[in-house]
User: Which sequence fits this backbone?
């Protein structure tokens, strides 16, 4: 499989996510029950982005590529006005069900964030926040950042937490005592990924500097960058970071 156009890879990944949603987060139901009861999900389960989402009552928040919808629903449960965007019709359906279950109202848009509809108003949101599994699906960082910048108010915050590129191109060996590169950190050729039981997906590799520079070039002021290790993630070892966080402000 080799994508011949932008539309090809978007449709391939949409088909993947319409099938694979439960494959990636089998504990979603457990967390939905906690969010429904008012459990501090953001603070306890997302401790890196949680501090940026403490005082969000009545804030307008947009969640690009919301995936399992848990961050989206947790923000709404804290009293924020939340919009979520995702390419997967199945993720949209599940987020609607989750919103009803948790007793919150959210706006859900089925779209590719790189081609965000103009119906999403510009200069309108206080925060754009993402959580893991974002840029590996993105062919154009410039398009992604352009839309994040467009929808935020002046002074609005972009909070991105995602898998660290180093963790995506390495593997642990010898019971976690060493790391080997499965591919070059500088190899940015799109890859077709095949997993048992789900349709294939097309993934893109970006260096951390690519992501930071795309934000800077779009006009964001970078406030904070962090690289960290999450021990719960199977197959990862503390020799390299598993995740990173970028906090930026629209000037």
Assistant:
């Amino acid at each position: 499989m080799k994508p011949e156009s932008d539309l090809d890879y978007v449709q391939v990944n949409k088909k993947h996510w319409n099938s694979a949603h439960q494959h990636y987060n089998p504990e979603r139901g457990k967390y939905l029950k906690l969010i429904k009861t008012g459990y501090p999900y953001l603070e306890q389960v997302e401790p890196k982005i949680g501090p940026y989402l403490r005082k969000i009552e009545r804030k307008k928040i947009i969640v690009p590529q919301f995936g399992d919808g848990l961050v989206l629903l947790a923000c709404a449960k804290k009293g924020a006005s939340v919009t979520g965007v995702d390419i997967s019709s199945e993720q949209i359906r599940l987020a609607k069900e989750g919103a009803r279950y948790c007793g919150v109202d959210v706006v859900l848009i089925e779209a590719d964030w790189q081609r965000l509809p103009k119906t999403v108003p510009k200069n309108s949101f206080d925060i754009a926040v993402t959580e893991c599994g974002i840029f590996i699906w993105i062919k154009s960082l410039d398009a992604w950042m352009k839309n994040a910048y467009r929808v935020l108010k002046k002074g609005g915050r972009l909070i991105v937490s995602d898998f660290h590129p180093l963790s995506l191109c390495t593997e642990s060996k010898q019971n976690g005592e060493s790391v080997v590169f499965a591919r070059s950190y500088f190899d940015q050729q799109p890859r077709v990924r095949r997993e048992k039981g789900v349709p294939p997906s097309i993934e893109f590799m970006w260096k951390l500097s690519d992501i930071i520079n795309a934000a800077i070039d779009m006009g964001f002021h970078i406030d904070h960058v962090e690289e960290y290790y999450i021990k719960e993630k199977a197959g990862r070892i503390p020799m390299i970071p598993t995740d990173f966080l970028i906090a930026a402000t629209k000037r």
